[in-house]
Amino acid sequence: HPCITRYGRVNLGLLGNWAPTNKITEVLTLIYCLLGDPTSENPCGEHENEFQNDRAAFDARARACTRYYAT
Fold first, then answer.
1. What global pTM score does this model have?
2. What is the pLDDT of residues 42-64, one digit of tens each?
Protein backbone atom coordinates (compact mmCIF):
# COMPACT_ATOMS: atom_id res chain seq x y z
CA HIS A 1 0.00 0.00 0.00
CA PRO A 2 1.44 3.40 -0.91
CA CYS A 3 0.65 4.99 2.46
CA ILE A 4 2.00 2.21 4.68
CA THR A 5 5.69 1.43 5.06
CA ARG A 6 7.03 -2.11 5.05
CA TYR A 7 7.29 -1.76 8.84
CA GLY A 8 3.57 -1.04 9.22
CA ARG A 9 3.78 2.70 9.79
CA VAL A 10 0.74 4.53 8.44
CA ASN A 11 1.17 7.95 6.90
CA LEU A 12 -1.83 9.61 8.49
CA GLY A 13 -1.64 13.16 9.83
CA LEU A 14 -3.89 12.51 12.80
CA LEU A 15 -1.58 9.82 14.13
CA GLY A 16 1.35 12.25 14.14
CA ASN A 17 -0.70 14.82 16.05
CA TRP A 18 -2.25 12.43 18.54
CA ALA A 19 -4.05 13.95 21.50
CA PRO A 20 -6.12 12.42 24.29
CA THR A 21 -9.20 14.07 22.79
CA ASN A 22 -8.96 11.97 19.60
CA LYS A 23 -11.48 9.18 19.40
CA ILE A 24 -10.58 5.70 18.23
CA THR A 25 -13.56 5.76 15.86
CA GLU A 26 -12.03 8.78 14.10
CA VAL A 27 -8.71 7.00 13.70
CA LEU A 28 -10.28 3.79 12.42
CA THR A 29 -12.47 5.72 9.98
CA LEU A 30 -9.45 7.58 8.61
CA ILE A 31 -7.48 4.35 8.19
CA TYR A 32 -10.46 2.69 6.51
CA CYS A 33 -10.78 5.59 4.06
CA LEU A 34 -7.04 5.66 3.42
CA LEU A 35 -6.93 1.95 2.60
CA GLY A 36 -9.90 2.21 0.26
CA ASP A 37 -8.80 5.39 -1.51
CA PRO A 38 -5.10 6.18 -1.09
CA THR A 39 -4.01 9.72 -1.84
CA SER A 40 -1.01 10.70 -3.88
CA GLU A 41 -0.23 13.64 -1.60
CA ASN A 42 1.35 11.60 1.16
CA PRO A 43 2.62 8.20 0.05
CA CYS A 44 5.42 6.70 2.12
CA GLY A 45 5.74 3.08 1.02
CA GLU A 46 8.43 1.58 -1.14
CA HIS A 47 6.26 1.91 -4.27
CA GLU A 48 5.42 5.59 -3.83
CA ASN A 49 7.25 6.67 -6.98
CA GLU A 50 5.30 4.20 -9.10
CA PHE A 51 2.06 5.25 -7.38
CA GLN A 52 2.64 8.90 -8.22
CA ASN A 53 4.10 8.54 -11.71
CA ASP A 54 2.57 5.38 -13.21
CA ARG A 55 -0.75 4.68 -11.53
CA ALA A 56 -1.75 2.01 -14.06
CA ALA A 57 1.39 -0.03 -13.34
CA PHE A 58 0.88 0.44 -9.60
CA ASP A 59 -2.73 -0.74 -9.82
CA ALA A 60 -1.69 -3.78 -11.89
CA ARG A 61 0.95 -4.68 -9.28
CA ALA A 62 -1.60 -4.27 -6.48
CA ARG A 63 -4.08 -6.55 -8.24
CA ALA A 64 -1.39 -9.18 -8.84
CA CYS A 65 -0.27 -9.09 -5.20
CA THR A 66 -3.87 -9.33 -4.03
CA ARG A 67 -4.49 -12.37 -6.22
CA TYR A 68 -1.29 -14.02 -5.01
CA TYR A 69 -1.50 -13.27 -1.28
CA ALA A 70 -5.27 -13.15 -0.70
CA THR A 71 -6.21 -16.46 -2.29
1. 0.58
2. 666 677 788 888 989 988 988 99
